[in-house]
Amino acid sequence: MKKNLSIVILLISLAISQSVFSQTYSFEKGKVPEGWKIDKGVLHISSEKYKSGSRSLQIKWKQNAVLTLPSPTGISEACRNRNGGMNAWIYNESPTKENLLFSFRDETGKEVCQLPFLLDFKGWRCIWAKFQGDMNMSSKSNIQSVEIQFPQHTKKGVTYIDLLEFTSKVSWQNMSDAQYKVNRTDYSLIPDFIGYRNATPKVEKVITAEDNQITTITNRLTTWYLGSGQHSSERWIKMRTENEKTFIRNGVKAAQKIKIQYTEDHTPQGEPLFPMGAPTIIDGQEAKKFRSINENILLPLALDYRKNQNDQSLKKALYIYDWFNDQGWADGSSMGTLCFEKLRSSGYFHSFFLLKEQLSPEQLKRELQTMNWFTMFGACYQLPSHAGEVADNLRALAIPKLIYALSQNDKQEREVALTAFKHYMDNALGIAPGFFGTFKADFSGYHHRGPYHSAYYPHALYAGALIAYLLHDTPYALSETTLHNLKQGLLTFRFFCAGLEVPAGTVGRFPKGQQILETLLPAFAYTALSFKEPDKELTAAFKRILESTENQQAITEYISNVNSNLAYTSTVGEIELVTQLASSSIAKEKPVTGTLFMPYSGLLVAKDSLFHFNIKGFSRYIWDFESSATENTKGRYLGYGQIEYFDFKNRHKSFNPQETDFDWNYIPGATTKVLPDKVLQDKGGSSSGHRNFSDETFLTGVHASDKNAMFSFRMHDITYDQSFRANKSVFVFEDFLLCLGSDIQTKDKRYPTVTTLFQSFSRNTSEERMPEGYILTDPSLMYAVKGGAVRTSSEGSHTRAYIEHGTAPEAAKYHYYILKNKKKVLARQLLSNESPIKVIAQDNDAHIVTYKTKEITCGALFNAQKKYEGQLVSQVNIPLSYILEKQKDNSFKLSVCEPDMRRISRAHMGLLTEEDVIQQEKPYDTQLTINGLYNVECPQKTIKVSLDKEKDKTYITISTIRGENYTLLLHQADH
């Protein structure tokens, strides 16, 4: 018997330990295990078929045969555990429509559970099944023996078993397939593959197409892969072509290790292949994975054949398809789980399109069925009642779904498939409700139920844009609404990027993966070219990014990188389309400036030509951070009010996780507890360990104008320390930001609480104390702190500056300014009694400030029960924030944000059900009471207004939803 094995499998793309092969039968000792007997057949240790090592158990069975396994190793512990069960690999030589039945029996011989396993296949298949969860065994039952009962009507057959294990922990990711069924009802994390496989290929109204229109789509896709051959001397096309040659050369070289071998009956022979869920090492040898061949070999072989007419590469690729199929890469085969396998199979999908014309009819039929299974194409026939799609399914499977539809030989079947695919993509790229991905109403992008802009979303944007281009100007073109969503998604993405970098608070578990915008340049080109005329706004934005001197290195690196791992995009055709749009006569846009609040990201963006600021929070609807066992392990505070800046002129930034000494306790702008690394990395009270929500709905922002904005949220940690709270607001004005905090509290007496001003890795910092407070500088900005206890600590060039609130603060506050221009005269003025800023409220009811000289008032109203007499906005019926700007003739512009989404939430993402995730946001009749009589209009929607002359009040009712911003124009009414 082999040594104990451990299976490590990704948990939602995170490396988390999975099933443990503690007691595995692998038959390497060459003996049938003691006591194993078959009544009608022969047991033999064979080297003909094996999934590991060089041997397996061969069973030559006859009709109604029973193989008995008395007291198999590990079964006692396995049946006592709720997740206990059986893992196994089974090879079948001759398909039959009957079951192999695993019957599990107690000490009396009574059956306590069973697992039917259909033998209608040839090749290897895998079982991951739980006794209690999948076979409905009572938790009080014991298993003493196992009977494997062979078909009742089939006269004889040959079956092999390898890596048979009775384990106390079968993976939670197991799934039903064509051979056996598991009890899964929630498909939010593991898709319903078998349900999609069984979907009827039917649509309400088939969109028909002429052959030349199908050819148009096919030719566009072919040219995207292979290039047109035009402009081959253009620098970027040449660069991509040369790097593609290296990719092909390396793949062809790696393929030399694969020997084409078939038996007399044309069954492929080759070493065992395993899915991603298998151990890395089996019996001291590295397990070869399908993934490694998918990523490194298959596509280079296909490109080598198509570009260089290398017949040897074609023969090798066709053999690999046969070999894959025999090893379990087949229609209906789950190989345990396809949770992540489907995402790492781009080499297979794309090579199929390039080589399908060379497949035999039998191979083509087989691989099309496999494509249908792996791409979950059946989802196209089962559109949900809501819009949206998981980003993984878009980035990894959108193009493969199109390949499947285009590859149908029957014209009518192809039209049905393409119609279904078009409807699927229009729905997938629609605005999704609740926590569901991918496109949100504010054009945030969601994955793992939260904003994810460093990965997933940009890849989904890319895939959607490419589909739009391939289908445009054909009967299957995506809708105008979908094109609008793609366009706004790209324009919004370029807005919240500073240069090429996404906000630090939306990086998920990739804090060092902020630079991403250059990878979306092709998506700009695809979408722009999908309109009747190249879209001017997209083209102008594209050209500014493309032509920026600062971006050239990143763009060159992108063009130079050719791979086929997660989603294959690095084609010559991609760069040809980028070059095509680059040659447009449309001028590049001016530098992007302005402000934007993104309620689905919990993010305010404020940018001008010199600085870019991102301000981030978390709430009942926005989780705090994502991590894994090895990634972003100290990122707990990224959403605790972080004020991130980019200084374009001096090339400085505030978030620098690449620095060895970066201290994750001191995230600029955040109010945190300073913890030892061990505690900071602790997963806390949440079983999820990350993606934690708050119980506070107040996370709000107002983008009143290009220069005036505000952000405010009520911070509450319900995971690590439920006594830890703070009210935090940032008010953005042209020359400075005002940061207010109040009611900072925690009962934790062990660790100090701080609000960080800055963390710098340059010696260019300073500090000056004065009676009114402190004035400090980092390399880019000046900080004027009113009162409070400011501390700085320096080690070499590393400086941390923060406001200290002490241990167990009860109602601590802070009040400071961030000055863009470092004018000490202004800093002193802001701290003095002659300050242009007046703080009207800074407590648990509200944060209200007035910029007296600009006649701007900003309010974050936490308490809807309180009357704010003396303010124009004197009362509201629900917590909200506003910015009031005085206009000419005693009129006002009132910008409002009411943040509550009014949908269900949980303590962390792992507790959200499928129903929770898609719950729609609900509108609310928000009422504002205005001191004085005003006529009121709203450009966005119809509102109700009533005037009470006796009380000198104006009452406004507006339906608010999704944390959106609304503008109310107030004109003084005649008395």
UniProtKB/TrEMBL annotation:
This is Lyase. Residues 1-22 form the signal peptide. Residues 23-180 form the Lyase N-terminal domain. Residues 202-551 form the Lyase catalytic domain. It comes from Bacteroides thetaiotaomicron. Monomer. One of its GO terms (cellular component) is extracellular region. GO terms for biological process: carbohydrate metabolic process; glycosaminoglycan catabolic process. One of its GO terms (molecular function) is carbon-oxygen lyase activity, acting on polysaccharides. Keywords: Calcium, Lyase, Signal.
